[in-house]
């Protein structure tokens, strides 16, 4: 999609559940300070959608994203076990958001220095499709549990090509394909095969290697600097993206972009954090950085850079931090501090 510099861009804004409305408010505040070009269309989803009209994914929300092709989304609560199917997964399916991009970069000194990783996750297939059911035996309706995943060769090629193109565009040198092709020989073997095939087209520009997921998890802790980009199937990408968030200070520091041909939805990697919801203490950096990815997506690299620098200065010069980073700032106090830094950068 092309965006003209002078025009406001219609963008769907979903406050979401739990800490969602808090980190969304903080993020909108810093986007306003930047003069970001988004014209918000506020829509509900998740538990908030149920409270508004009885539907976790209202038609009005789908229509809005269909119209805008662009959304910034707070986390949505998904019931564990029974209840409705994940709205996040449904949104990725509805708009065929096949690529999930999750960068992890050190912003504050912590256990690991100088982390700069990008995880690309296949976003619509694998075990996450969750063809998941019970088989009753005798009087036990849940005697046997079955789950099947699906990966198509086309979808594997598509996400591999996306990752290699991303690498070329962003000056990345190496892609590590993460799989379990020794055990899930078909489901993740097809993923590895497709990546090897696509890698041939980029052989002179990007190195490809691969790791079995369990070994990769260990090596991410022992020596994360050996990795540049990780290309993962859906479930492994879900797990390892929380792990790489841990390398840079936790879930408060981890943005994500869900990208398709006709739409893109930007969000934090974290969920609705019910344990701290309503207290005004959540770290809004993940969603702010996701908004930064959205600015880059619409061609405003300049604003994305100013936003990132303002966050870094707030953390490291002003020493304003939320509790998860051992600070004392509230969500909105942190946002105000970032907005102040943005005003100074003009
Ligand atoms: P979670 O990511 O919400 O929270 C895990 C832990 O990290 C909690 O202790 C929480 O307080 C902390 N945390 C998360 N974000 C934080 C932030 N910004 N600042 C400070 N601390 C933060 O994961 P959990 O508890 O497993 O899931 C809660 C709900 O969120 C579930 O219903 C789950 O399905 C949903 N979820 C939604 C996602 C989405 O909308 N994309 C992604 C992940 C989970
Ligand atoms: Mg997750």
From TrEMBL:
<keyword id="KW-0560">Oxidoreductase</keyword>
<dbReference type="GO" id="GO:0051287">
    <property type="term" value="F:NAD binding"/>
</dbReference>
<dbReference type="Pfam" id="PF00180">
    <property type="entry name" value="Iso_dh"/>
</dbReference>
<dbReference type="GO" id="GO:0006102">
    <property type="term" value="P:isocitrate metabolic process"/>
</dbReference>
<dbReference type="InterPro" id="IPR019818">
    <property type="entry name" value="IsoCit/isopropylmalate_DH_CS"/>
</dbReference>
<dbReference type="GO" id="GO:0006099">
    <property type="term" value="P:tricarboxylic acid cycle"/>
</dbReference>
<feature type="domain" description="Isopropylmalate dehydrogenase-like">
    <location>
        <begin position="8"/>
        <end position="338"/>
    </location>
</feature>
<dbReference type="GO" id="GO:0004450">
    <property type="term" value="F:isocitrate dehydrogenase (NADP+) activity"/>
</dbReference>
<comment type="similarity">
    <text>Belongs to the isocitrate and isopropylmalate dehydrogenases family.</text>
</comment>
<protein>
    <submittedName>
        <fullName>Isocitrate dehydrogenase [NADP]</fullName>
        <ecNumber>1.1.1.42</ecNumber>
    </submittedName>
</protein>
<dbReference type="GO" id="GO:0000287">
    <property type="term" value="F:magnesium ion binding"/>
</dbReference>
<dbReference type="GO" id="GO:0004449">
    <property type="term" value="F:isocitrate dehydrogenase (NAD+) activity"/>
</dbReference>
<dbReference type="InterPro" id="IPR024084">
    <property type="entry name" value="IsoPropMal-DH-like_dom"/>
</dbReference>
């Amino acid at each position: 999609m092309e965006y003209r510099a002078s025009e406001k861009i219609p963008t769907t804004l979903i406050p979401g559940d739990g800490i969602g409305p808090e980190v969304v408010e903080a993020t909108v505040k810093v986007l306003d300070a930047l003069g970001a070009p988004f014209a918000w269309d506020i829509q509900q989803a998740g538990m908030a959608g149920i409270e508004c009209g009885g539907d976790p994914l209202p038609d009005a929300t789908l229509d809005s994203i269909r119209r805008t092709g662009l959304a910034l989304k707070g986390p949505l609560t998904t019931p564990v076990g029974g209840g409705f199917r994940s709205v996040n997964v449904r949104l990725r399916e509805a708009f065929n958001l096949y690529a999930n991009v999750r960068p992890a970069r050190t912003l504050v000194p912590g256990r690991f220095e100088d982390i700069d990783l990008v995880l690309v996750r296949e976003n619509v297939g694998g075990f996450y499709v969750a063809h998941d059911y019970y088989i009753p035996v005798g009087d036990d309706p849940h005697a046997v549990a079955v789950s099947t995943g699906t990966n198509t060769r086309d979808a594997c090629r598509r996400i591999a090509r996306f990752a290699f193109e991303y690498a070329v565009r962003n000056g990345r040198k190496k892609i590590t394909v993460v799989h379990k092709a020794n055990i899930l020989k078909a489901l993740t073997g097809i993923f590895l095969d497709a990546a090897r095939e696509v890698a041939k087209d980029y052989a002179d520009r990007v190195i490809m290697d691969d790791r079995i997921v369990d070994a990769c998890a260990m090596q991410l802790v022992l020596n994360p600097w050996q990795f540049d980009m990780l290309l993962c199937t859906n479930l492994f990408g879900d797990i390892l993206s929380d792990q790489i968030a841990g390398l840079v200070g936790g879930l408060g520091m981890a943005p994500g972009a869900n990208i398709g041909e006709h739409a893109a939805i930007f969000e934090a990697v974290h969920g609705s954090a019910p344990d701290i919801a309503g207290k005004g203490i959540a770290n809004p950096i993940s969603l702010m950085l996701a908004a930064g990815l959205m600015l880059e997506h619409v061609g405003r690299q300049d604003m994305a850079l100013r936003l990132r620098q303002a966050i870094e200065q707030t953390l490291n010069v002003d020493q304003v931090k939320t509790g998860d980073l051992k600070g004392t700032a509230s969500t909105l106090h942190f946002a105000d501090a970032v907005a102040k830094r943005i005003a100074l950068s003009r």
